[in-house]
Specification:
This protein is an alpha/beta fold. The protein contains 8 helices and 6 strands, in the order H-H-H-E-E-H-E-H-E-H-E-H-E-H. A hairpin with a 6-residue loop joins strand 1 and strand 2.
């Protein structure tokens, strides 16, 4: 059985989401059409509004509806301290800690020459133009090969400046038992130990 063109387009539309294959997309489509057309309408309106109204902050590249995101627009934050993260989800995670009071720079990915993602694709040219106003960079990229390569590239980019550069600590989670922590994490925790 073939779907009608509109149903098929909706199924194909859902498959653009990560982790959603044709079967899941078909289930979501059928559920909306059978049981929640009102919710489907709200979803469609929210998607349309977000696709039209959300852009990137001109300063940090995070998602924003105005020229500046709320963090960059907040003058109470330390404008000279910048935490570099891979995604908006990372900003949210750090903000939920309540500890960081500086700005962010959102890469929207990592360097990956194999995938054609170079410095300009992750906004490092914009970051470079901002270096004069920055006194400290905190690297909060992941520990993947791409995350480490990106951190190394940024370190090289600021070499020779007066900018303090640091990397967030990585290792054993709070409340974690050592027996459940993998070897690579333990190795990193031992290498990153500090004096008390």
């Amino acid at each position: 059985m073939k779907h009608s063109p509109l149903v098929q387009r909706l199924i194909e539309g859902f498959t653009v989401l990560p982790g959603v294959g044709p079967r899941s997309a078909q289930r979501m489509t059928y559920w909306l059409l059978e049981r929640n057309r009102e919710g489907g309408g709200r979803l469609a309106a929210a998607l349309e509004a977000a696709m039209q109204g959300v852009k990137h902050c001109s300063c940090c590249r995070n998602f924003a509806e105005d020229e500046l995101c709320p963090v960059c627009a907040d003058q109470r934050r330390d404008q000279s301290q910048v935490c570099i993260v891979a995604s908006p989800a990372d900003v949210l995670a750090i903000e939920q800690s309540g500890e960081y009071k500086g700005r962010y720079f959102v890469l929207m990915g990592h360097l990956s020459p194999i995938d054609g993602i170079g410095p300009e694709e992750i906004g490092l040219n914009l970051l470079e133009r901002q270096l004069d106003a920055i006194s400290e960079l905190i690297l909060a990229t992941g520990t993947t090969v791409e995350g480490e390569a990106t951190a190394h590239y940024i370190q090289e980019m600021v070499r020779g400046t007066n900018i303090t550069i640091s990397r967030i600590a990585q290792g054993v989670p709070m409340g974690g038992d050592l027996e459940y922590v993998d070897g690579a994490t333990l190795a990193q925790a031992l290498k990153s130990r500090r004096s008390l």
